[in-house]
Amino acid sequence: MGDIAIRIDDLGKRYRLGSGIQGAFRYKSLRDTLADAAAAPFRRARSLFGQDDGQSRRNGEYIWALKDVSLEVKKGEVIGVIGRNGAGKSTLLKILSRITEPTEGEVDLYGRVGSLLEVGTGFHPELTGRENVFLNGAILGMRKAEIERKFDEIVAFAEVERFIDTPVKRYSSGMYVRLAFAVAAHLEPEILLVDEVLSVGDLAFQKKCLGKMHDVAGEGRTVLFVSHNMQAVRNLCARSILLSHGQLIYDGATGETQQFYRDLLRQQEVDAETDIRNPLNRRGSGAARFTSIEVLAVSGERSHSFRMGDTIRFRLSYRLLADVPELQVSVALRSGLTSEIVTNARHQIYAEPMPAGTTGTVVVEFPDVYIRPGEYPLYFWLGNSAAQPFDVVDDLTAPLIIYPNPDMKTLDFHASNPMGYFSLPSVFERAITAKEDET
Amino acid sequence: MTVVQEKIAVQHALPLTDEKPLLVIRPSGGWPSLNLRELWEYRDLFYFLVWRDIKVRYKQTALGAAWAIIQPFFTMVVFSLFFGRLGHIPSDGIPYPIFAYAALVPWSFFANGLTQSSSSMVGSARLITKIYFPRLVVPIAAVLSGVVDFILAFVVLLGMMLFYRIVPTINIVWLPLFLLLALVTSLGVGLWLSALNVQYRDVRYVVPFLTQFWLFATPIAYPSSMLSEPWRTVYGLNPMVGVVEGFRWALLGTHTAPGPVVMVSTFAALLLLFGGAFYFRRMEKTFADVV
Q1: Which ipTM did the prediction report?
Q2: CATH superfamily placement of domain A4-35+57-261
């Protein structure tokens, strides 16, 4: 029993629609409450004192962000938590880090918990880097003496020595993020909860952060790592759990869990109906919606894995739900490692106004994709030339997987040490070779 | 030294984990405890938050910390003109300007603390939804950071006493207690309002109205000695009555010793504080979901 770090039993979290989840009516005005109070004085009075357990309300007003989740994590284990937006990953971490309270169930934590749900929370732009290190450290639960002891190490890790006495509002976003991560990374909790912090910063620093997390894991501490970054999860975590609609649907070795997740995504057609009700999944004004998205090989077969150098086609159908003055489409590949956009193809579908109800299909083709082998989450966008989005389908489909091409005779790529994103065709010519003794 | 501490921490952690969890998270019911021990563990956070508020408050203002003085000082000028000169309000035998200013200094501390703390939870929404720490730290630090402004305004008060040649009595030793009373009152109301503000943004509109109303319900422009005795003590149910009369008594030597009034005020202030603290703790669990 002594080797358990986290035990979660039947954990559930219910949100009231429109309060915890993004919604139109986030705050109650006192007037509403008073109006309600006239109708049901006792229930309202209880609500004012936080006793409204919601039993008297209709179920439809609530949403379970997490339901019946049970999990045991051993000491020193590093567990990846994957799943799409709105699956309950962040809610789980918020409960474990005591930011919000569960509605039901229980969590036992055997050790001091540190959480890193967002980098740089509590940084004040007017304060200098030095001042923010202390402020942020204190917010994260470090004592002043502890921060003083680690101060030099934090600054060195963030590589901001020269600017440490400059207000952080003058920092570049990269410096800001580096300093913020450095503070958080030097927390020394026995259980570390990390949410998606690596989606910021440049590639080099992200590698450094991943390295730091490796160290943390190596020191026998327990880590729960939430990320969309499948490669990072694979590198860091031996075991992963998959959440979907608030439930834990798979728990196993990271490779298996990710495979299960990919299969799940593949089965899931992206069409107009897909999770359209979940505002986290589909963004944009809704003036136009994709009605289907297909990734095709040259043969016309649907596929998500390609070899380097293959041609990739995206067949996209859409419907206009409002009159639009024009319409553009864009297809982008994100980096599986950093989530930044690696390449983006944008095209004008209509340059003239089109009425609501118009439907159509376009094909966007990337010929000869000489892109580094790896995983590329996909991003689809409908909008106008002012870059206002009508519909955004971001990382909802299975990611594109690019395999090395054994037929390609190139020295550009080494699987063990990949460099860059692309292999642009390069022409080579040996102009002069001169040896000493030959003339 | 630090190395030794770390070792102790590690040894400490091991037997604990074998027996029972360090922390159990489950839905809470009933009335919460104040958990003052945890608050104490986060004492450095108080320090840094107060320090941040002070550093940042007057950044990019032309007059800077002078604002801490301008506010009560000009209110005093206006009061002296309208209530003192034109209204002939009595001032317990003390020159009216200093009579009013000695009350406005603790009043400003109270009113600013109340305003700052009532908006503090909403202002820290990002922190609250991303990091756990005892939530009580936020409104308490908001009130505490007003102490610096108080000291600045107080120095002006001392200057005015010099100008009017008023020698403080020995009762000045009680002054810190009256300041504490103002702090407790400010925090007591601030806790109620900050917790309510998370749920009901109406509080934003209530606060300016409340402080204005309270200003005139407190004997700042007039002396409480205008009331006859049983009522004057009842008046102490407004804790700021005790604070203001206490300040005048301790500094200026007004002869109306505020004993019973202060007792009533202290009682009322403590009631506000504990009520506010428990209400705050009660509502705390929903903050991150609602704010």
Answers
A1: 0.80
A2: P-loop containing nucleotide triphosphate hydrolases (3.40.50.300)
